[in-house]
Amino acid sequence: MAERNGDGKGGRVQINLELYGKRLKLLNNKWKEHKKEMWGGADAIAVVTPPASEDLRYLKSTALHIWLLGYEFPETVMVFMPGALHFVCSSKKAAHLEELQKSSKMLTGVDIHIHMKERKQDGSVQMNSVLDAVKGFSKGKTPTVGVLSREATEGSVMEKWAECLEASGAATVDVSGGFSEIFAVKDEEEISNIKNASHLSAAILKSFVVPKLEVIIDEEKKVTHFELMEQTENVITNPGKYVKLKAEDVDICYPPVFQSGGVFDLKPSAVSNEEPLYYDTLGVILCAIGARFRSYCSNVARSIMIDADKTQEKAYKILLKAHEAAIAALRPGNAMSVAYKAAYAVVESGGPEFLPYFTKNAGTGIGIEFRESGLTLNAKNERVIRPGMAFNVSLGFHNLTTESSNPKSKTFSLLLADTAIVVEKGPPEVPTLKCSKTYTDIAYSFKDDEEDEEVKVEAKPKVKSESNGSNEPAVRMATLRSDNQEMTKEEQRRQHQAELARQKNEETARRLASGGLGSGDGQGPNKTTGDIIAYRNVDDIPARELKIHVDQKNEAVLLPVYGLLVPFHIATVKSVSSQQDGGHSYIRIIFNVPGAGFGPNDVPTQKFPRSIYVKEVSFRSNDTRHSYQVVQLIKTLRRQVAQRESERAERATLVTQERLQIGKGRPIRLSDLWIRPAFGGRGRKMSGTLEAHTNGFRYSTMRQEEKVDIMYRNIKHAFFQPAEKEMITLVHFHLHNYIMVGTKKTKDVQFYVEVMEVVQTLGGSRRSMMDPDEIEEEQQERDRRNKINKEFEAFVKRMAELWDQPPWRELDLEFDIPFRELGFHGVPNKSSAFIVPTVNCLVELIETPFLVVSLNDIEIVNLERVGLGQKAFDMAIVFKDFKREVLRIDAIPSTSLDGIKEWLNSMNIKYYESRMNLNWRPILKTILEDPDKFIEDGGWEFLNMEASDSESDKSEESDEGYEPSDVEVVSESEDDDSDDESVVESDDDEAEEEEDSEEEEGLTWDQLEEAAKRDDKMKGDEEDSEDERHRNRKKAAGKGRMPDPRDAKRGQPNKRPKVR
């Protein structure tokens, strides 16, 4: 086992002092309590590690280093004594241990002594010094030194230590049992590592190995076991496509094992041979994968069966029951023998003929070592199971036989393995169960003719029952190939989508049953305004001449009414307008009154419910210039107050952030960056610097007020997008909670640099492609792009190293890089954009407003307007939070349809297809109002286009709440304000439009009466039937058009009027 980020790799070693202190105390306590029975009465314990090696090997010496220090230190001597710990190592390793030496006494009460060995020295002087300390501690008696006697002597350091130890005359005793006891029960950190390793093993087997085998079998490819092993090993060591784990943290426990063709070995030391994969009738394929995460192991194994006969089916089902019985027996207080005895009893009662072929144990303990000594699950081990133990539960039948005459299928073996973690109460946790082991999921049938039809007939009702909420497992025995046509990728997708539909409906049912309906869009409470007061008493009103005045200081409008100046607070003004007629200017002011949409700001209505309110006032003036100035002043003041109140309300909904802790020394930084959303205010925009400090980022410009802090704990997703076909290189942060950037409230903050400068050619002549100036400019642009990309890459890499250290490791932060090859064009807002998937999100980071959709938040995806002849389709993304608006991405080219379906399928996202756009608001409203009815009706299956076609008559009656709209629905995302939109509307044109619309609302009673009469004439009497109204409209439309005389001459009928 090679060292991990340790000596010789140039990486800085940072030992987790908290874990070191806790685990060293545990070791010393166990040593003190069980000195005689587990440690052989050792006065000191010596552990020596061999030289670094790339070979896969499991040694207790290296396991101790990783368990205690987090790293392996090759060719290092560690000697434990009561109150002291001695290291004999090279100068480079000594430098890594300096920080530990300073803190150990305070953390554990143990002094660390480092005996540094120079490169040219053999270390005998330092070793003898340590042995002298051991003799001094024994006070004249012959000391007993605990050693790992089962580990072979390897390398010059181990050989020299053995010589010095023998020469010292000290007695030796094996202490492997003591270390096994310490490693047996895992703490929270170790369990987390084992779970991550298990998730990796199961994900690779489920998402890579099984689909790979299906393609090989379906297309009848010739692939050897060894080739499969190499391909799988590469995927395990680079797992980014399947699990969110870093490549440097993962490794293999052993080379993946693939066996078939009658030659099987159920030992963990088995290897994949060079023989081709055998997948004909009665064939069995064994797949075993062991992955490590931060040196902690996991294991999972499955048996794939092809056209199994009754003997094979019976053997597998019995083995599955035995395996589940062994796992269920792993409970605190039980002896380890109980697990094997439970499995043996199942085989003995269900298939005694298989007992001679049954494995002799049910697995072993697992952790840093793949097989932990003393924790074997056999019939004789009476060691007690405790919470925190982890086991590789592995059972199998070896070399069973069938009636086949083919030697490759006559002999077969079966193997099942899972990683199980013992918990305080109840059955153990099995993180590898993500990869199913039920018979219907591992058995494939390629039988033709009658047998094939029988399987299909049996499978059909089960699939239907699943759509109705049945808990029966999905049937996977349906044939992959028919008589004349092999299974296509589309059919494979359909199979997977059918399974996803079942899982999604079950998950949705559980969530709705538990009340997990979501919390909406996170909108803050409606803003409220305090008392609207212009002047507290009459004396504060300024004495002015009788004309309209605007008091900006007190935010009031003074209007002359019957010889007095009457003040109105600007918040009561709804709109103001002016018009000129015959040399006079007319000013019209409309006020907010009860029933006119004043809403939560209608404080006077609540205080004085019986008062009479002025709805509008009009003034005529001979001074047109003054009238224009007054109107503009009122509009400006009204807009400023609205901006202030809006910003105050937005800030009131912000979550309080922790304070930024400025780091010591030179921070990680990027210079000359621009920020989006940009800071408000006037004046020339300025670039700034992004710096990484102790607990967050700070972006600042030369202006003191332009500063933004982003806490690491507030980052939900981080993205790095280098410039390829874009004009900018960027880093983007999508946050958990809103922050303010200037006057803008946002969850998305982006920092970018333009990689190409905007250049305008002043010369009117065309430039040749071979023009040396043109070539030089292009080269400069490429150099600039590469330079900027490298600077960003270096920043991202250093941040990844920082986030991998405690306490940020638990946040699981990393920079996602979008996959351009999976991208597609679409309209998520109001303009077309290039939308790109990442490992965890679907993003569009170039155009504003930005699009960031977390895949974990997606319930289902509905692909709308999908059909033959359509050049584009739409995508509706429904979130798990049903109170959140459905996200629409419109006008996606139909050429991207297959790629999007393949990507959604690979990410285990259920998608549906429909020929029309759906009105999602009433659909979600119906689900929220009656979730039980939604589940009873089959959940999301009403979106299944194939099912809806076959039962179209019934769907019109039963799915009233899910009817598609009869007109094309405008994108809901266009109606909603974006997260990062400014809370301060500074555009005069928008304000003018708003005020114009308000003026239309403020009609007089006479105008409203006339409008009502016109509507009555247009609509006709209310007692008229709908058909009569329809005929009247047709007559009106026909009479409203004069016939063309030329049409009469030609004998052509009049064109039918178009109704839109």
UniProtKB/TrEMBL annotation:
One GO CC annotation: FACT complex
SUPFAM superfamilies: Creatinase/aminopeptidase
Domain FACT complex subunit SPT16 middle: 548-699
UniProt keyword DNA-binding, yes or no: no
Keyword flag Coiled coil: yes
Domain FACT complex subunit SPT16 N-terminal lobe: 15-179
Histone chaperone RTT106/FACT complex subunit SPT16-like middle domain residues: 824-914
Main location: nucleus
A Pfam family: SPT16
Family: Belongs to the peptidase M24 family. SPT16 subfamily.
PANTHER family: CDC68 RELATED, FACT COMPLEX SUBUNIT SPT16
Protein name (record): FACT complex subunit
